[in-house]
Each structure stands twice: as structure tokens, then as C-alpha cells.
Amino acid sequence: MCRTVDLHQAVLAKNDENALALRGYLGDRGTVAVNLLSSPGSGKTALLERLLARAVAGGTPAAAVTADLATENDATRLARSGAPVRQILTDGLCHLEAGMLQRRLEGWLPEGTRLLFVENVGNLVCPASYDLGETLRIALASVTEGEDKPVKYPTAFGLAHLVVVTKTDIADAVGFDREAFLGGVRQVNPGVPVLETSARTGQGVDALLAHVLRCAAGEEAHVPVLARQHERYLHSHGNGHEHPRADVHPHPGARQAGAGPGGEQERARGQER
Amino acid sequence: MHELSIAVAVVEQVEEAVREQDRAVASLTLRIGELAGVVPEALDFSFGLATEGTALAGARLLIETVGARGRCEGCGRETPTGMPPVLWCAGCGTPLTLLSGRELEIVRVTLADEPLDARKTVDGKGVGPPGGKGADDGPRPAPSGLPVRDEEASHVPHR
Ligand SMILES: [Zn+2]
Fold first, then answer.
1. What is the pTM of this model?
2. Residues in CB range of A240: below 8 A, 6 or more apart
3. Which among A205, A251, A264, B59 has the fewest CB atoms less than 10 Å away?
4. How far is it, in rounded angstroms, from Cα A5 to Cα A251?
């Protein structure tokens, strides 16, 4: 006879917990994190280099962490902006997790940093599942990647607070179908703001920085449809965490104790031991 | 492929939850929404790797998939979102409220009857206690365990 143990725990509970701690850590320092997600080759690093330089020039203390599978090229490029930059080599891992990020920030994050840009691993699938304690999540796509990008990666674009189009200076040359792209964005994330940028010409860089600064100042970011059910999850996890083994041990106040045959059986067994 | 990271997270949480039970895990049920960003087939594959040498080794992975559904607060229409999802209302254009589809949850585990140590012996990973205890039992038992255990091992479901 097998014993059943009801758990009802979010799979990513550990990361969500770490993200909550990281959010507190950043909040205490007055730092706002911006998580940048894109495919490799989207021009994310070039845009971030411009953005950092603009922030530094405008007197906003900004820093960046860039995650890469194995090389340090991005960090070297970003450091040209004059902002403090730190590399995280994920050693083959396809995404950043909140715990990894916090360990990298501790003892490094410069005092008074207002904006912390986190350049996630170039990948639109895996990073989408991991909360990094960010205030703003941005999904980027270049005009060369095709109009169907948002629909192909609905979780990445669907959970974004802001969508950024890059390399718009070559949009006409590559025949970028703007309306189709915006239609796809609206399909998976109705109401999300979209900004068009070019690191080469500087188009949209100021608008992007202004948007980030408004969010940092407390203006409410767009809430994606996909994020709403997710938030309920985070909440239900909070309860589970306070009583991690509530369903395993006999525990009169436990959420699920005695609910259903598995629970009863477990309770009986627990008392025998 | 973050399914391996997900599988590792599942294994860690389940091991922590059942640690005091001292039983191997016979099966594990996950609930995965259509919009959770996880590919069940990839997760199934990763699960086999992630469970090696743990209390979940050989456990069956059962996946309940949950379809994504949304409701329009404007006109009350309730529909599946489809995949890729359409998250605004086809009737009136209002953004939907997501009712389901983002689930990524460990629902329950069933524990095997035999203690965890027995399972480990079968797998050849925890070959009995060293020296001391053997003295109480007289002659030291064969390290590979009793034949009847091997029989049982062949019935352990693999994923
Ligand atoms: Zn409607």
C-alpha cells in the first residue's frame, strides 16, 4: 500500500523566495532592477551600452550585470559606458536565477546605484520563467528576427512590462512588418507599451531611459495578462512556505490536513510513528 | 533547456518534503499549465537525469496538463486562449483575465512501502552499513543484497 503526500507547492518556489529576498535587498539600497530578455544577436548589448552611457551622462547612477554562457565580451563592451559592470558566467546554464544574481551583487553593487540593468542570457525561453526581483522586465526583438517573434515566444513577450524593438534603422532594408509585429505583441500581451530603438542612430534611447526612470520613481508598470495568474501563484506559495511540511505531518491548523483520503491516511500514519 | 533546472528544483523540494518519511518516492504528480513555458516531454526526459541517486530514483512522473482559459470582464465570454495564446477578447477586444494555464506545481507524491535504505541497496548505491552492524547479524551479508530485492527492483517503474 502506498502512502500519498499532498504537497501543492509551486515548482519554482525556491526561486520565487530568493527573488523576494533579492527585491528586499535591492529595495533597501534604493536600487531598481531591470531584467532584459532577448534572443542572441538582438542588439541588446549595443542598446544597453548606449542606455548606460546616457544614464551616466544624465547623472543617474546605473550599473549592469551581464550574464553569458562562457565569454566576457559583453562586459568589456558595456564597461565602455563608464558604468560599473559585472559579468556572471552561467557555465552553460541557459538562464539566470535570483539566488545566483544576489550572490553576484553582494559585496559589489556600488552604494547609491539607482538602476541595475540585468542582461539575461540570450534566450527567450528559459529566462522567462525566473523572477529576478526586477521592477521592470523588458523583452527585446530586433527587426531582423521576424514579425512572429512575440507569438513564437509567448511567455517571454507575454510577461514583459515593456517590449523594445531594436535596430529600427535597418527596418526598411530588411522589410520589417511593423503592424504584424505589433499585432503579435498585442495578442500575447494586450496593452504592453512598445518602444522602437536604434543603438546606431540613438533613436528611442532617451525615451527608453525616461520610461525606466518613471518606473523607478514608482509609476506603475503595465501588468501583463499572463502575470496575473502568476501573481496568485506567488501568493499561494507564501502560505506554503510558512508551513513547509504542513501536509506531511499531523498538524491541526494545516491547510490541507485531512482533506481527502490521502491526507487522512497520512495523518494516521504520522501518529503511529 | 531549463527543464533540467526545473526537474532539479522539483527533486530538491520533494526530497526536502519527504525526508523524515524515510521512504523512496514511487510516483510524483506535477500540474503544468499550457502557458507555463515548460515542455512536458523535455521535463519527462530531464526528470530521469535529475532523480539519479536521489530518493526519487525510478519514480514515475505523472504530468497533469492544464489548458489555458481566459475570461473577458467586458462581455463575460470565457474561452480557451489557444496556443500561441490570444489574450484579448475576440468579441469585444478587452484584455482577458487568465483563469488557468500558468500552473507549475508539485501536486503530490506517493511513497513506496520499503524504507529508503532498502531502495538504495537495490540500486547498489548504499550497499549496507559498514563493519559494525554486520557483527550483530553474524556473518556479513552479501553486499549486493538478497535476490528477492533484485526481483523487486525490476518492478520499480521507470518514469
Ligand atoms: Zn469581451
1. 0.80
2. A8, A9, A10, A13, A246, A255
3. A264
4. 14
Is A44 strand, coil or helix? helix
**Residue (of A123, A105, A110) closest to A69 by Cα position:** A123
Measured between CB atoms, which of A2, A97, A154 is closest to B35? Answer: A154
**Letter string b/e over residues A22-47, b meaning 16 or more CB atoms within 10 A of that residue's CB:** bbebbeebebbbbbbbbbeebbbbbb
Q: How far is B146 from chain A (nearest CA, A)?
A: 22
SS3 B107: strand
Peptide bond into B129 cis (omega under 30): no
Least CB–CB distance from B111: residue in A3, A128, A189: A3
How does pLDDT run across A191-235, given as a tens digit for each residue?
A: 999 999 999 999 999 999 999 999 999 999 999 999 987 444 434
What is the C-alpha separation between B91 and A54, in angstroms, rounded?
44
Distance B81 CA to ligand 1 centre (A): 13
Measured between beta carbons, the chain A residues lying within 8 angstroms of B92 are none
Amino acid at A119: E
What is the whole-number distance in angstroms between the Cα of residue B77 and the centre of ligand 1? Answer: 6
Closest CA to B35 of A158, A235, A139: A158
| CA of residue A222 to ligand 1 center, whole Å | 20
Q: Are A3 and B23 in contact (CB < 8 Å)? A: yes
B109 bridge partner residues = A5, B28
Nearest CA to CA, how far is B40 from chain A (Å)?
14
Task: Give the ipTM of the model, two decimals please.
Answer: 0.79
Measured CA to CA, the distance from residue B108 to residue A89 in angstroms comes to 35
CA-to-CA distance for A202 and A159, rounded, in angstroms? Answer: 26
Give A131-178 pLDDT, tens digit per residue: 999 999 999 999 999 999 999 999 999 999 999 999 999 999 999 999
Contact A13, A21 (CB under 8 A): no
